[in-house]
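Q: For a teaching handout, I want to show students what a protein-ligand complex looks like in C-alpha cell form. Below are the inputs, and the small molecule is zinc ion. Please produce the holo structure.
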Amino acid sequence: MGADMSGYLVVGPRKITEKSIRKAASALLRKAKAEVKSSSWTCENCGAVMTMDTSVCKSCGYEHEDLSSIGDLLTAKAHVEQLIADWPPDYRDVTSRSSPFSKGQIIVFAGDMSWGDEPSGAGYQTLKRIMASGVSKELGIL
Ligand SMILES: [Zn+2]
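A: Here is the structure, written as C-alpha cells, with zinc ion included.
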C-alpha cells in the first residue's frame, strides 16, 4: 500500500482587493447571523446540517469554525483579514504559478503525500481554512 497525494489546488487573485474583503465580510456576517438564528450550521464539506451543540460534522468528520463571536461588520472584516493574511501562501508545502488564462491570477497548490492522515503543512492548512470559510468565492479564491 502506497501513499496518496492529498492537497488543495486553487485559483485566486494575486492580490485580494479591499472590495473583495468587504464582500467577504458581509457574507461572513450574514452566515454567522443565520447560524445563530437557526441554531444550526451547514457542513462546508458535505452539506449536512448540524446543530450548534457540535462543531464536528457527524456525516464526514469535518470541523466547523464557530462563528458566534462575529456579531458586526467590523469583527467580520477582521476575521476575513486574518483569514487571508497569508495569501498567497508561501510555505515549503506550496507551489504556485501565474495563471496562463487570466492576468493577475495565480494557481496555488499545497499538499503532501499522505498515508491516510491529513497533511499538516502550513500551506495546506492555510488553503483548507480559506476554502472552508464559506467566503472563498467572495474573495475570488476558487
Ligand atoms: Zn460534513
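A: Two things your students might notice: The chain has four helices and five strands. Residues 43, 45-46, 48, 57, 59-60, 62 surround zinc ion (CB under 6 Å).
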